[in-house]
């Protein structure tokens, strides 16, 4: 079984196009407000607020919404090159390159504002 991750997004087609740029494949089904993609050893589920069980209001009335800082990490061979490529196609950068002990990372955003970490190991 492939590990899965779910994001709440505002626009399913825009999110699918974004994740295709990151190497994900749309594996369907696409049912009003939902899409499923595979890539980087991960299954990604995309839900619009209110769509399916994952998009429903919480018991306390909180409505699912995009954003936050929890994120998937995609390992890339050359962080700077990948950032340049993605910026050229209009991807929003949340945090530019940060160098740490384990490597370099940057955080980009999908069209709904959900973060995705790009990481190049040291």
TrEMBL record:
Coiled coil: none annotated. Signal peptide: none annotated. It comes from the Bacteria. InterPro entries: Glyas_Bleomycin-R_OHBP_Dase, Glyas_Fos-R_dOase_dom, VOC_core. PROSITE patterns: VOC. It comes from Nocardioides luteus. This is Glyoxalase. Residues 1-121 form the VOC domain.
């Amino acid at each position: 079984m492939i590990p899965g991750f779910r994001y709440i997004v505002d626009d399913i087609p825009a999110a699918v196009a974004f994740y295709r740029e990151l190497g994900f494949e749309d594996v369907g089904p696409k049912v009003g407000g939902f899409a499923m993609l595979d890539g980087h050893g991960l299954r990604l589920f995309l839900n619009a607020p209110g769509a399916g069980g994952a998009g429903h209001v919480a018991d306390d009335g909180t409505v699912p919404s995009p954003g936050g800082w929890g994120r998937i990490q995609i390992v890339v061979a050359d962080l700077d090159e990948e950032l340049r490529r993605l910026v050229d196609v209009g991807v929003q950068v949340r945090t530019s390159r940060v160098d740490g002990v384990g490597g370099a990372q940057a955080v980009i955003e999908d069209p709904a504002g959900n973060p995705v970490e790009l990481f190049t190991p040291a």
